[in-house]
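WARN retry 2 of 3 for item q-0093 after timeout on previous attempt; input resubmitted unchanged.
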Amino acid sequence: MRRFCLSVCFAVIFLGRVPEVFAQPAFVNGLVIRGNILDATEQSGANAGRFGFFSDIYYDPWRNEWWALSDRGPGGGLYDYATRVQRFTLSVNPVTGRISNFRVRETIKFTDPKGLLSAPSALVGSSNALNGLNPFALNGDGGILGRSFDPEGLVIDPRTGHLLIADEYGPSVHEFSRKGKLLRVFLTPENLIPKAGSSANYVAPRDACVVPPAVGPVPPFCGLKAGRQDNRGFEGIAITPDGRKLIAVLQDPLVNEGPHSATQSDDRGRDGRNLRIVVFDNDWFSRTYGTSIGQYAYQLEPQAAVAARINAVKPGDATDTDPRQGRNIGLSAIVALNEHEFLVLERDNRGIGVDDPGAVHVTGSKRIYKIDLDGALDISGIELPDDGNLAAAAIVPVTKSDVFIDLAAQTLLPNGTQAEKWEGMAIGPRLLNGSHLLLFGNDNDYSVTQTGAGEQLDVYVDFNGHFAKCPLDQQTLCQLNDLGPFSEPVPAGHFLIPGVLHAYKASAGDLVGYVRPTPWSGLLHWWFAHRGPSATRTTIATTMAFCNSVWVARCQPGASPVSCRAGVSPRAVRVFPRLILATPRMAGGRSAHSTRPRSWTACREACAAACAGISRHRR
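OK item q-0093 returned
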């Protein structure tokens, strides 16, 4: 049976074209998207329906769906905002990879109808919504996370279609249905939870004791002593091709993981370059399901190298602490190539954005790297050395490649302006020559900033160094270039900061080892667990006959999915609707959307994936 399976898979592979090989992914084109577009709620206003650009992007190859994640909202954690995820469509030229026609199709708000999280104490628009308000503002207690939610990373489980979201407040990982209903909260490792003293505090900053603006007299929130830095929690998440592991990345080092200066008390984590990648068990049948099963060290590029690139363009624009090593340089996204290799997006905080609307500062780092977890030391339960020297402590970090893509090498914005927050990254559809589209997007912070008193202001820019800040959703009574009173209209030629998408074409050689997310291995895993080995052997035999007669013999280039299914025996249709043709029904009776192949390429890849899964189970 194993030999038969391999012969089928080889037949499938050799029917494909030989892919082109590129030195590295080539930039194709991009889109600049107006900052005032609305999401599918079509509600006007920044706090209602203004589209929140790309905190993350995910492409679901089995459903041919694009998803975009919006973060905690335009209020910076100070305003009521129902957090949400967006499904969009994008035209992709199957030959060149050129993108066009971005359209928002569906907006899904995250809710907790089962009450898995504590209800808010604040009066908000929807009490069961996961809300962008910070934990103190929502719950009246900085030590209660509750339904406070700052979503930053997104993947879709290929077995169920469920949404898995990485949150920055916690940091935490949540599982939602395709309607946005909370299904599970993964257990956050204790060493990541932010603590002031010995107690959890999700709103405390790194050092100074402050009172939250516009809150009134309350006990001060003093500096964190351990756990993630404020506003530096989980920033991205990946899922392995079989769906059984989740990999979340912290944006920057932990507060208590240096190096710490003997003369500075305010450098908590901000001078470090060693952050943590956290692996969660997403295997339903594992005893550790829903918990962390590994942590690994990732080393950011040294600050001196980033500063040198900046100063080569604009002397004196960077210093030893600007951009800050462990604060202004960090990871923003991760995507899986296979079980142990990933692409990561590392960037600084420079470029046009709400904090630098005049784009005064030169960018130094907007880079994609390949990393490999194989061979890295699991540092669960290990505190990284105070001096940051991993080698001396015999800690092996993840392997990191040379630069895979430099996003700053291309820009679509006027006058060579660079976008600040590149945060979305996805491996898109397979192109006709065997290449894949890679898509990257920026987070524009809704083009909204906040004053020290918490007042929201829209930010308009002209890409020539000029800008205007206006009361939210208004274009009058604006302040120009941070000078003078709020009394002017928005000048002509000024616009809300846009969203940006970049498309790259990556050859099979660029993405060597890449494995698409596949529901097949997960379904076989489910079948084995629920039906036992004897039934699984019968399943394998019938599946192979089905695979051979239909996917290879009947699926020809250009054939429609209906043609691919023509001539299937009634028995095969009865036995395998879950495995190959129709909607897979997973544990607990929940259904995912159809995973039916939609093209000749999908037919071939489905066969190869099914055969690979069957071979593993036979062994």
